[in-house]
Each structure stands twice: as C-alpha cells, then as structure tokens.
Amino acid sequence: MFQFEVLFDILRYSMSSIFWGILIAIALMGLFVFLIKGWYKNALFTPASYLVGGVIFLLLSFQCTFIVGALKIISTTDHYESEVESLMDQYYKPYQEVTEEGANQAIQQLIDEYPLLEHYISGGEFTGWNADQLPHAIASELRSFMRSYIVRRLLWSLGFVVVGAVVVIKTMDLERNLGRRARQSHSNRPSAPMSNRQRPGSSRRRRV
C-alpha cells in the first residue's frame, strides 16, 4: 500500500516524474526485446510473450517513476535545507539546542509544504542538534535515505527483468520455428548427383 500512496502523490505533485518514468521504461523494454531477439534469432513471440512483456513494462514503469521522483527530491534537497534554516532562524538562536519536539515541528511544517516528503522522512529521528546544525542533518538524512531507496528500486527492477526474461523465453515459439527453418534448409539443399551405378542404362557390358 505504501508504494501506491507514493505513486499517487508523485502523480499529484510531480507529473514530470511519471512522464520520464514511463519514457525510461519504454527504452528499457526496447533494450529487453532487442537482447532477447539477438540471442534467439529464430524465435517468435507468442501472445503469452506479449502479455508477460506488458506486465514487465507496467512494473518497470512504476519502479522508474519512483526512481525519477527520488532523484528529483535529491536534486531539491538544498532547497528543503534552506526552508528548515528559515524556520530555525524564526524560533531559535544559532547555537541553541533544538528539542525533539521542536525538530518534529520543523519537519511537519516542511511536510505540510511538500507533502511528498511524508513518505521519506518523519520526526523522532533528530535530537541533540543545534539550530544551525539541524537543517544540514535533516538534508543529509534525506539524501542518504533517497540513495538507498533508489538502490532498492533498481534491485527490484533487475529482479523483474530477470524473471520476466525467463518467462518470456519459455513462452516464445522456439522449437516450431527452428523446425520450420530446418525443413526449409533441407528442402533447399541440392540433391547429390547419381553415380554411374545409379543411372539407368549405365550398367557395365559383360565381356564376351
């Protein structure tokens, strides 16, 4: 359920992530088909192969969308850091320690302004930081989480591709197409000339 909530929020707040995610998935599917057809040159895709390919495309579209959304969050982390800095300047002195409650309030205000962050960062994690240190700590934690999130999405994508490739290959028309090519090759092969013994009327004359 968590991933669907992320997808819906990305759809609401970052349409460009959806666009680029689908575009990357199309490119990956093109490479996927190219590699399979390059390895099995004589094989044919069956309706089951196309069905499996469609499922793989949907799964890759989701994962690529999540990855693009995560990259966008990483690219704007400096902006989030400056937002937290402005909040700290309003309520704390630079070297004043921020309580857990104060840190949670700052994070909640940030989430209220950027709802997509709710899935990646939460309160209760930042204690013992001064007001001038907390913004950088939050930004660093967010970057670290998003990098590990991207790695997990890449591993999921790799797993989908490997399993999908095995299933697609099993659904491809390999034997029938190879047999058809073998019969065509055999029928086009020139027949061997008959030897003198096989030619009619070529029997040796007996000596008298």
Commentary on this structure:
The structure is a single chain. 71% of the residues lie in helices and 2% in strands. With 208 residues, it is mostly helical. A two-stranded antiparallel sheet has the order 1-2. Helix 2 (15-39) packs across helix 3, helix 3 (47-75) packs antiparallel against helix 6 and helix 4 (77-91) runs antiparallel to helix 6. The longest helix has 38 residues, at 134-171. It is elongated and about 70 Å long. Mean pLDDT is 79; it is low at 177-186, 194-199 and 202-208.
Strand order of the largest sheet: 1-2
Helix count equals 7
Low-pLDDT stretches: 177-186, 194-199, 202-208
Question: On the 0-100 scale, what is the average pLDDT?
Answer: 79
Helix content: over 70%
Task: Please state the CA-atom Rg, rounded to the nearest Å.
Answer: 32 Å
> Count of DSSP E strands?
2
The shape is: elongated
Proportion of residues in β-strands = under 5%
H/E element order: HHHHEHEHH
Structural class estimated from helices and strands: mainly alpha
- The span between the termini is 102 Å
**Major beta sheet summary:** 2 strands, antiparallel
Summarize the structure.
This protein is an all-alpha fold and 208 residues long. Helices cover 71% and strands 2% of the residues. The protein is elongated, with a radius of gyration of 32 Å.
Question: Keyphrases for this structure?
Answer:
208 residues, mainly alpha, 7 helices, elongated, disordered C terminus
